[in-house]
Amino acid sequence: MKFLTLAKVRPGAWSKLENDLPAACYEGMKSAYVTYGQYDLVFEWEAKDIDAANKIMKHMAGSDLFTSETLVVASTLKEFGKLQ
Length: 84
Prior knowledge:
Layout: E1 2-9, H1 14-20, E2 29-34, E3 41-46, H2 50-62, E4 66-72, H3 77-81
Antiparallel strand pairs: 1-3, 1-4, 2-3
């Protein structure tokens, strides 16, 4: 399973982000980007199943460093284009 998490960093949390984000949040992490616009960060990550994804999400939410919205990646654009 692939996910994208769009995050807004809470005021004063930037300096804590690297050290205070629980190690469990890094499980399956493929990349993390600082972005400009509505969201401050975008995390690209994977989990083997929904239980593993829920565990990671619980740690992200419990960190209280950011608010987030997570999207399940259905397919790549190329894969989607091949559907009949």
